[in-house]
């Protein structure tokens, strides 16, 4: 078991805490709380070294599907890790500018969350982007552990806790005890992956193209239908482009066809949970059996996910009080307290 809490951060060691997520970026400033919460997206003009930033965050998100060359949309992260250095740098720079702390006379010191299984290369890329954005003394902290702290768990207790952090780009399953991650499992799928699966299904099966915003709306509609036990044969309509006919059209399909895509997505997450439980030591397994499993992250808000995990494992599942913000709240707590310790 490798301890991730073997050191205590000196009080005041950082100025900002940053949850750089696949879907949204949240920034907290020491003493001021949350100061930035916007989509993780940028709009550039041009490509390569000559590209210039046009917009970032909410302003860039409003441009999706409505731009023409030389403008292009870029997302800094894919599957939970940095995939576009320029977009990551510019988004961080844009977010940091929203703060107004006394530290502005120098470079801000920052805490940034990363997936627990991120590689050294992925971490180096994020550190480089952060330094290029004007940050210094950047410390990278594991997101599932921050999610546990942000949800109010006492992670220092001698008790096994299973936390599933379901984000837009990655789902992480960890078992925590005595302030350490005892074991972890990760699948690089999340809410965005389901959007992509719906897009691919419609294109391959019906030669019908929809935009990202429509896929997100479709996902939410299916989630509500499944959570409320609605009629699976209800017709769902969507506007898009008929690739075969070469014209815009409205396509109507029975919800059951799209639910099959949704269920396959959920099975991938359930499989990683079951694999983690198989590797969990008996004493920790007993604790998890007694306490159940905690779900955090935006994808956890789909009640069907917790239901499917419960059916596959026989364990109770609980959704954190503020699942979307757990990682950011955990980072903020470390930022304010100056130490990696959950609140009593």
Report on the architecture of this protein.
With 344 residues, the chain is an alpha+beta fold. The protein folds into 3 domains: 2-147 and 326-337, 2-Layer Sandwich (Nucleotidyltransferase, domain 5), CATH 3.30.420.40; 153-189 and 265-325, ATPase, nucleotide binding domain (Nucleotidyltransferase, domain 5), CATH 3.30.420.40; 191-262, Alpha-Beta Complex (Actin, Chain A, domain 4). The protein is 37% helix and 28% strand. It has 10 helices and 19 strands. It has helices spanning 58-61, 85-96, 120-132, 143-150, 191-206, 212-228, 255-278, 282-291, 303-313, 326-337, and strands spanning 2-3, 16-20, 24-29, 33-39, 42-45, 52-56, 71-74, 77-78, 81-82, 108-114, 135-142, 161-166, 171-177, 180-187, 208-209, 235-242, 247-254, 293-296, 317-319. Strands 1-14-13-12-18-19 form a 6-stranded mixed β-sheet, with helices on both faces. A 5-stranded mixed β-sheet has the order 4-3-2-10-11, with helices on both faces. Strand 5 (42-45) and strand 6 form a beta hairpin. Helix 5 (191-206) crosses helix 6 (212-228). The protein starts with a strand and ends in a 7-residue tail after the last helix. Mean pLDDT is 89; it is low at 1-11.
Give the topology, please.
Layout: E1 2-3, E2 16-20, E3 24-29, E4 33-39, E5 42-45, E6 52-56, H1 58-61, E7 71-74, E8 77-78, E9 81-82, H2 85-96, E10 108-114, H3 120-132, E11 135-142, H4 143-150, E12 161-166, E13 171-177, E14 180-187, H5 191-206, E15 208-209, H6 212-228, E16 235-242, E17 247-254, H7 255-278, H8 282-291, E18 293-296, H9 303-313, E19 317-319, H10 326-337
Parallel strand pairs: 2-10, 10-11, 12-18, 18-19
Antiparallel strand pairs: 1-14, 2-3, 3-4, 5-6, 5-7, 8-9, 12-13, 13-14, 15-16, 16-17
Helix pairs in contact: 2-3, 4-10, 5-6, 5-7, 7-9
């Amino acid at each position: 078991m490798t301890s991730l809490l073997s050191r205590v951060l000196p009080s005041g060691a950082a100025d900002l805490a940053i949850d750089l997520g696949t879907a949204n970026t949240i920034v907290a400033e020491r003493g001021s709380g949350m100061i930035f919460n916007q989509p993780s997206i940028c709009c550039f003009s041009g490509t390569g070294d000559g590209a210039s930033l046009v917009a970032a965050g909410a302003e860039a998100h409003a441009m999706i599907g409505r731009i023409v060359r030389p403008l292009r949309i870029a997302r800094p992260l894919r599957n939970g890790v940095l995939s576009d250095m320029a977009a990551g740098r510019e988004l961080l720079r844009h977010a940091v500018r929203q703060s107004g702390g006394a530290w502005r006379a120098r470079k801000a010191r920052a805490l940034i969350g990363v997936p627990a299984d991120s590689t050294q290369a992925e971490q180096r890329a994020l550190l480089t982007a952060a330094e290029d954005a004007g940050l210094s003394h950047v410390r990278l902290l594991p997101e599932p552990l921050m999610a546990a702290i942000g949800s109010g768990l006492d992670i220092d207790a001698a008790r096994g806790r299973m936390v599933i952090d379901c984000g837009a780009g990655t789902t992480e399953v960890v078992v925590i005890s005595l302030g350490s991650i005892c074991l972890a499992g990760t699948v690089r799928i999340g809410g965005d992956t389901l959007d992509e699966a719906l897009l691919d299904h419609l294109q391959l099966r019906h030669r019908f193209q929809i935009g990202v915003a429509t896929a997100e709306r479709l996902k939410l509609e299916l989630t509500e239908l499944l959570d409320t036990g609605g009629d699976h044969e209800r017709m769902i309509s969507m506007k898009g482009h008929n690739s075969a006919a070469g014209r815009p059209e409205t396509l109507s399909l029975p919800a059951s066809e799209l639910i099959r895509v949704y269920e396959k997505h959920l099975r991938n997450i359930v499989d990683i949970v079951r694999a983690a439980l198989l590797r969990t030591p008996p004493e920790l397994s007993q604790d998890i059996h007694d306490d159940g499993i905690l779900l955090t992250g935006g994808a956890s808000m789909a009640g069907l996910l917790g239901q499917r995990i419960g059916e596959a494992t026989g364990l109770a599942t609980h959704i954190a009080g503020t699942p979307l913000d757990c990682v950011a709240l955990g980072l903020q707590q470390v930022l304010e307290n100056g130490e990696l310790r959950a609140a009593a």
